[in-house]
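Meet my pick.
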Amino acid sequence: MIIIGGALIVIVCVFGGFIMEGGKMEVLLHAFVNEVLIIAGGALGSLIIMSPKKVLLDIVKGLGGCLKGSPYNRAAYDDLLKVLYELFLLGRRNGMIALEEHVMEPAKSSVFKKYPRFTNNPHAMEFLCGALRPIIDGKIKPDQLRLLLDVQLDRAESEHHAPVSVLQKTGDAMPGFGIVAAVLGIVITMASISGPVEMIGEHVAAALVGTFLGILLAYGFMGPLATNLEFFSNAELDYTRCIAACVTGFANGMAPVTAVELGRRGLSSEFRPTAEELEAMFKAMKSGK
């Protein structure tokens, strides 16, 4: 809703200013459909040409997520810290083997079922279970876990950056497609150069609408959308990094509360609970509230 509201502000301010300056909307609307067809069609075509299938799908999913709003809010992080603490506490008391049933079959886990915000995030669930599994199996030493997770995080960061980069490049091309539309409009104008002055002026105005729309779409919509998608992707990466920090700390012998504290300190101030709030959450968990 925030994105839609921002888009409406851009539209109202730009076209409202045009009308206030004495412009006539019928002049813009007369050429609007044709110019949008050239610019939007050219941009879509270039987007398809430069993008592998996976990147195109990631763009669609990412933009859908941006419109819904980021799920990584304060409540999501509170649930994350709680589920990590409960798992670590179980592993410390009963041994790492006690975590096997929760990691191998997370859908049946009595711990995960308590935290639907976390279980509804399949990527986070997969990452957490994948981080704990090698430690439970004893396949790697605890001090080697960080290297394993860093490789996975680097790959995830690269995959998150690809849709942003493609969308930004498409936005950068919008003014160029606007110029293409304007040149085509000038070609039509030159073909009608012997006509009345009013008709020539109408053709020139229509040509300039193409340049106007190309610049507006680039800097008013595509650029901001790419930036918003980047923030959305970074939010998911930050959530995953928090899991990695906590699991690495616990695997290296930290007490459950200390391992979770390690992840808490790496959170953005917008989502980071205070030490007192974290302690209160854990006390409420122990008391069953």
Observations:
- Residues 26-289 form one domain.
